[in-house]
Every structure is written in C-alpha cells, then in structure tokens.
Amino acid sequence: MLKISKLITLCCILFVVACHEQPAPQNNERSERSKMLIANMKLARDPHTWSKPNDARVTHLHWTASVDFKSKVITATAKYDIQNISGTDLIIFDTKGLQVSATKVDGQPVQFNMGEDKPIIGQSLNIPIKADSKSVEIDYKTSPDAEALLWVEGEKPFLFTQSQAILARTWVPCQDSPGVRITYHADVTVPSDLMALMSAENPQQKSADGKYHFEMDQPIPSYLMALAVGDVVFREIGPRTGVYAIPSLADAAASEFSDMQTMVDEAEKLYGPYVWGRYDLLILPPAFPFGGMENPKLTFATPTIIAGDKSLVSLVAHELAHSWSGNLVTNSTWDDFWLNEGFTVYFEQRIMEAVYGRERSEMLATLSRQDLDATIADISSSEHPEDSKLKLALEGRSPDDGMTDIAYNKGYFFLRLIEETVGREKFDKFLKEYFTSHQFQVMDTETFLDYLRKNLVDAETEKKINIQAWVYEPGLPSNIPSVQSAQLETVDKIRLNWENKKVLIANIPWNNWSYQERYRFISNFSEDVTAADLSDMDRAFDISHTGNNEVLFAWLQQSILKKYEPAYPELEKFLVHVGRRKFVAPLFESMISSGQIELAKNIYTKARPNYHAVTIGTVDEMLAGK
User: Fold this and answer.
1) Is 319 marked active-site?
2) Eight-class DSSP state of 225
3) CATH topology for the 329-472 domain
4) Does the annotation mark 80 as catalytic?
C-alpha cells in the first residue's frame, strides 16, 4: 500500500496530466472532475473527528431546516449521499449537543446509537449501512446553546454560525474534518421579515414567505458551511462583488469596501481565476468572534473594520485570498493549519501591494512581525512551547490552540523568505500552478514540502532557506526576512523622542498619520510612559473616542497597563459590545496581568452574554480560579 503522502502526490499528478491533455474545463466541469478525484483519495488520520472517512464518506448534503428564534433552535433534516469505500457496516458522524430523533438509510428507518461524549469533540453518531448503501438521512434539532450559533437579540434578531474549527458538528451532523469535502444544497425557512444567507449562491432580496434555496456546487469542508439570518439588504459593488449589511450600515459598508472588485481582479492576475462565482461580504453584529471568516462566496466580517477611510480593508484582502489558500487547497488536518493561513497572509500582502502600494503592504508586514515576536515570547513561556512550530501536534487538545500568529505570520515570513530566495517571478509561477493543480483537494505539510522540492527548490536552496528549522523547530530562525517601512521607522523615532521629552505632544503629527502609524506609536509605549502621559495625549487627540477599532484596542490596552482610569468607561463599552476575540482576549489578559482582576470580572459579567462560544471559551479559561 502506498503511503498517504505518496498517494496524494500521485493523485495530484494524474489530475495535472488530465488538465494538460484536455481543453480547460468550465467551473462546474472542473468541480465535477475534482469531486471524482477526491472521493477516493485516502485521507490522513484526523484526531479531531470520530468519523472514519476512509471507510465510508459523505459526498453531498441536502439540508432542510427551519429556524426558530423564540426557542433558539434549528429543526432540520440532513440527507447525505454517501460512498461506502471499504464495505464497512457503519458510517460515523460527528455531533455535539444535537438531539437526533431518527435516521434512515436508502429511505428505510434504521436504529442509530450515540457514542461516548467527550469535551472537545462531542459524540459520534453511528448508523448501520450496507456495502451498497447510497444515502443516509438524519432528523435532529440543535441545542439552544449550540456552540457554533449565536442568537443576537434586538429590534430585529440576528443569527449567525461560526463553524471553524470543529463547531459545524454543533448545528449539522457531519464528518467534521477539513479533509472531507462535500457539495450541498439547502432549503431553509426563517421569519418572513428576515433574510437567510449561506456559504452558497445567495439571494439579493428578501423572500416574501421566508423560504430560501441554496446551492453550493463546489466541494467544501464542513468548517466552511455557514448560515446567517437577519434583517439585511444588499449593495452591489462590482459585477461579481457586493455587500450585505443591516440597513443602517449598508451604505457605509458599500463605501468602505468599494475596492472589493479591484481586489478580486488583482488576485486573479496573481494566481489564476476566482472559481467560486461571486465574492460577497456580510457584515455581522459586533459579537462575531473573528475579524472575518472565509465562507465560500460569502465572507462573514466584523463591523469593527468599518473605519470610514478604508484603513482596515486588509482583512477583506485576507478573506478573499482564502478563496485560493484554504478554500481551494485546504489543510488536511488542523496540525497543518499554517498551510491555510500562512499562504493567505502572503497572498493578502500581495493583494494589498497591488491595490494600495508597497509602502502600505510593508507597514502591514512590519506590524505582523511585531505581533509575531510577541506571540513567540508568550508561547515560549507557556506549557506548550512547541506550539511555535509551523507543523503542530494538537491531538487531545482543541484545534483553536493552534490558531495563533504562528500559523499566520511565521507562515507568511517563511513563504516570503522562499520568494526572496528564488525570486518573485519564479515563486509566483510556482504558487499559481500549486493552486491550479491541487484545487478542491487537501494538503498536508509533508506533501507540500515534497511538491516544493520537486518544483521549486533544489538541495542547495533548501539548505539556504533552512526549511527544517522553519517548519519543525520552535521560535524564529535567524534568516527571517527583514521588513522595511520608512514611515514606521519615522514613527519609532518620534515615539522615542517623545518618551525622552525631546518632542512635545503638539509636535506629534497624529492627524497626518495612517492607522498603521498610530497603532505602531501606541502599541510600543515603554514602561516609562505614565497615566499622566496618556491623559495629555487623550486631551490632544481624543484617542479614547477614535473611530478606528485597531487604534482604540491598542489605546485601551495601554490604558489598562498604565492604569489610565478615564479610559475605563470606553473600555467597558468596547468589551460589552465587541466580541472579536483578537481584541477581547488581550484586553482581559492585560487586566489580569496588571492585577485588576475585579475590573475584569465586573466587565466580563456584563459582556459574556453577548459573546460567541469561541470567545467565551477563551476568556473563561483566563479567569478560571481568579
């Protein structure tokens, strides 16, 4: 039997040969070929799923669902087309908190059983099948506290899902591994005054009866299944792009993201066609736990990136880049998460450079290095210092533990090093072929490195790059690429001179600075800066009320550390209304580390009911035992 990595490589070679021998297929034809290829591909063992997809695997889902805001429950039927690969007598699904009422195989009722319930991965749903079984049907309800779902109350309620990494199993019984890809269509019923949207082909107007039909013809992993229901309207931006938002935010969102079509065009110039049809954006309530989620065809995004000046649109470039890295070529397991995020940060930077210029992308890269250094320092002193490797080992732990700046920014700098070593032209050609030849497939670290060696780097180049150290050793190798931003270097000089009383606040060019410059200035205050200094700055520039949430976050964190109490009302307001974990976790950590435990507890009591389970889990762990 071939090893998994060799089998995957062989399948990829056959796919490339087929593409070269025949005319270029259209999107649907390409998708069908890819589905045939991946249906029989042997998948790597994934410790975060109960399912055994190398024995019996799902291939297509027909999901019928009704959304009830009063009970905070989705009642649904998941009917799967399946493939019994090994002739097994059992197909296994992942569930967590689902109330399964009945199952059928090929239309006939069968008796199911539930396995042991474990804290991270939930329960297995075990359904007996025959060697020639073709379909499985599951009737079920979600729990009101399903971890993927957040039911946002208000004048008009809102529901959204967040399935990554392994939370899809809390609202759909599935084989919840990134290696298992399915197509799906769905019929969803919601209150008639609300619109339903999914990671699929979407409506642009509300249905009169609250019934919606969705089609996703390209195969995707379960973590990319997504649903949102709310009072939203659509604004067109380009021929393939648009924005959904609540009516009061729609015009501001359309203006903020007016460059989306240009981003798509520039991305295609770099690494080939955008194969998903439309690229739209949905602005979610501020409780959304991430900046964005790359759900195919419809990125979910936080409203905290609406700054009024397009200063935070790099997040859109990032989620768009996922349409190639992550959505098109997907990490095989969560141990290989850097293959999704490192590539995406690299691609994001290239999009930003193409649309906004090199200096802006270099400012972003400089801030990425700053964040990476801080993350490595934190991880090095943690109980898992090995987590600063690109290739992770997360068995027995939540895959969320691997969602750090290591995957994103260490991965980015590794790829940037390869680019700078072999040359941009050769690296771009390599990446374009990589995305094209592996589309709708999964990738693990070892298979990628084999592909890299065969198609781009020889032994001498590999030694120069030091691939072993970058991928399999903790920390940062000494040959990390240098980043140069003249604007941020000037900011650093001004900050040092201000801290040393050589520059007056009146002479700080705050009003002329970009968000990146302001963030750099604030986030690097030394221990010598006092609450009185922050008070002087606040009087001069009213930073506590800035409309840029990245700058506000940095300011509030410094206010906590310096105990600048006049900013605390804004701190509480921010944490009660914003559930983005990137902001929330460091702010609570700063309160804890600075000895302000009661402040943290008091604010969290008010904020916790507004947070998604992803954010709650992080902060609960921080405050446990405090």
Assistant:
1) yes
2) -
3) Neutral Protease; domain 2 (1.10.390)
4) no
